[in-house]
Design a protein that fits this description.
Layout (H helix, E strand, L loop, with lengths): L1 H12 L13 H16 L8 E2 L4 E5 L3 E9 L15 H32 L8 E8 L13 E7 H9 L4 H7 L1 E4 L1
Parallel strand pairs: 3-4
Antiparallel strand pairs: 1-3, 2-3, 4-5, 5-6
Helix pairs in contact: 2-3, 3-4, 4-5
């Protein structure tokens, strides 16, 4: 009787389900998405590309979903060098205007990256999120008025897949997508 009681207590303490129930999001899937996002970011403006600072980093968080983070300079300019010792006020104004004008296109590209990633991350459960965070680079002293330092977008994978496959209208993405600017 005592053994039966101990066995039932142990069984109750173990989590339900099995290892087979857990999503199988492996590093190769995340790496493929990291590389895809880097290529996508660099192709937004092919004639005047963004500068991707470092590489996109991704991770899967069980119970939340997949998250990808990157840092970009959406309006690269000549940096400080012995031949260009300072950035002039005129350059700062030109860069600020360029960043403001590129912001809507960057957000649209981020939405496209989310849609593309959802179809490629098959083993992420449909109820979990796909998240993309982009940190924007600024020079010291640069005017950041009207510009966020970071944009974070996320939506449930099921909505992203449904919109990407055409089963739901694009308007379904707008209502399910969360966009935070910091």
């Amino acid at each position: 009787m005592r053994i039966l009681l101990i066995a039932s207590l142990l069984a109750a303490a173990l989590p339900s389900g099995s290892i087979a129930d857990k999503p199988k999001v492996n590093r190769a899937m995340i790496k493929a998405m990291e590389d895809s996002m880097d290529r996508h970011l660099q192709s937004i403006w092919p004639q005047d590309p963004v500068e991707v600072l470092g590489l996109t980093q991704g991770a899967y968080i069980e119970g939340y979903g997949a998250i990808f983070l990157s840092e970009v300079n959406v309006a690269p300019t000549a940096g400080i060098s012995p031949f260009h010792p300072t950035i002039t006020k005129e350059e700062f104004v030109r860069v600020h205007d360029k960043k403001l004008s590129r912001l809507p296109q960057l957000k649209a590209a981020m939405q496209e990256m989310l849609l593309s990633s959802a179809g490629s991350l098959d083993s992420v459960p449909a109820n979990e999120q796909i998240t993309l965070g982009i940190t924007l680079f600024y020079w010291r002293g640069e005017n950041t008025d009207g510009l966020p330092s970071q944009i974070v977008m996320h939506a449930p994978k099921r909505v992203l897949v449904s919109v990407k496959s055409g089963m739901s209208p694009r308007s379904a993405l707008a209502s399910a997508l969360t966009v935070d600017e910091y």
